[in-house]
Design a protein that fits this description.
Mean pLDDT: 84
Number of strands: 11
CATH superfamily: Rieske [2Fe-2S] iron-sulphur domain
CATH architecture: 3-layer Sandwich
CATH class: Mainly Beta
Order of helices and strands: HEHEEEEEEEEHEE
Amino acid sequence: MKRTNVLKTICTLLVLTATGCHHSIDINFNRVPRLNIYVPFTTEGVWDSYGAKAPLDARRFIRPSEPAGFPYQDYSFTGYGGVLQLCDLHGTLRAYDLSCPVECQRDVRVIIDYSTNLARCPKCGSTYDVFLLDVSAPLAGAPVSGPALTSGYGLRRFNVVFGVDGRYALITN
């Protein structure tokens, strides 16, 4: 009986030692409230005019006024703080809620800092790797610095899919 307890204790200590040195951070991508997202690019012309298609290109969608002239419909929704749609360094389309997950306010929105190619919160200063510049980054939208990194808060991510003919996109949650 005592030998079994000793073996269990040794196994537990080995597991704790092996995992205790791992410095990974659990990232919470769901801190910003989940509201409906539906930004359709209904024609190739709308996609060509408003979509972010080239690497390191980004667009903001905040219904009803941004971008100016975007054909929002009654069934269009832009989430909690708006939508950041972009094309990452590898040419993959990505979308995030614009609200900083540290601040969790609709009107505190991240902006792209093109000097660093990171999304940055103007209030808390947190930065996020939205373009997947760091190949070792755990996931798109992960925090890079500031209170978001300390707390493990990443940007809420959305789906970007192409229409049936593959010529234009749709952003949904």
